[in-house]
Amino acid sequence: MCKNHGIAYKGTGEVELMEIDYPKLALGDRKCEHGVILKIVASNICGSDQHMVRGRTTAEKGLILGHEITGEVIECGRDVEFIKKGDMVSVPFNVACGRCVNCKKGLTNICLNVNGDRPGGAYGYVDMGGWIGGQAEYVMIPYADFNLLKFPDKDQAMEKILDLTMLTDIFPTGFHGAVMAGVTAGSVVYIAGAGPVGLACASSCQLLGAAVVIVGDMNKARLAHARSFGCETIDLTNGIPVEEQIAMIVGIPEVDCFVDCVGFEANGHGASAGEEMPAIVLNQAMAITKAGGSIGIPGLYVTEDPGAKEEAAKQGSLKIRFGLGWAKSHSFHTGQTPTMKYNRQLMNAILHDKVDIAKAVNAEVISLQDAPRGYEEFDTGVAKKFVIDPHGMIAS
User: What domains lie within the chain, and their CATH numbers?
Assistant: First the structure.
């Protein structure tokens, strides 16, 4: 029997590579004949993982992390019909049954059958159904025929693997935020946050034909990387109000579309610099988005935040100026991304050289053994997206 190793959350600020069970085609005590076992080719570290590692969720110690999974099928259950052994596939981070009313409507982010506590499931994530994560050597994927996106050619896939591994989450999430914000040809867009999701969103806005893509952050290295592929940037540490900086770029202090790629671990700037302000991005969105505009919110907000400074925020209750959004007839679009809504089209964009998403997010390959260092470095705010290569398949 092959051994398996994975990255486990061990407590606030700590992850560890440990030996774990080799996956079985099973769900508890019953066989999972609709599942497959993957040899993992790439599994990425996500900012959402960092929320757990920082102790900002109710994640339990021992959770095997990793929801961004790309791999090769090495075993198929009896009922798997269209996915074959040897296929190279992308795994949507959403675990979805394909049978419930939400899945049938394309809302695979809120599947009703994969999580006993609430709608929606995900690999290696707190409160998302207990599915074992994919920052490992091998993993089991259920409902394989429905969930998996097969790459047309394995050799071509390996040539573009750094781009294709972004299809599991970060690229569709950035693209979803842009689509939900109404980005189209000629749009002026503001993206809050120059982390990997914000950079993926910026690249998505360019793909969608936006005229001006503005990215705001306090991290100078990340802003410099955003400029490297054609974005305008706003440095939130310079003391100039965001509205004024936008006016310096486009002539007026507002934008057509706003995308929140920060989420609940937001900090103030200007007079509030260094102060944790979980609602600041949402309030900023309503202030600078034009009347009738849309606000996409792929940034993560949680129902429980044990590390919050305010008691209300610990229960996910934030102080937002909703009356302003109502007065300006804003549309708000929240929630996890239904990855399958976008991943096939975005795969084609990658395979036909329409986008360089790995370059946009500055992907860097590391080994599974080096993943704890990747977590530590990522937490410092480096302008990188770490791609874990468990079997040395990318480096070779």
Answer: 4-169+338-389 (3.90.180.10), 171-334 (3.40.50.720)
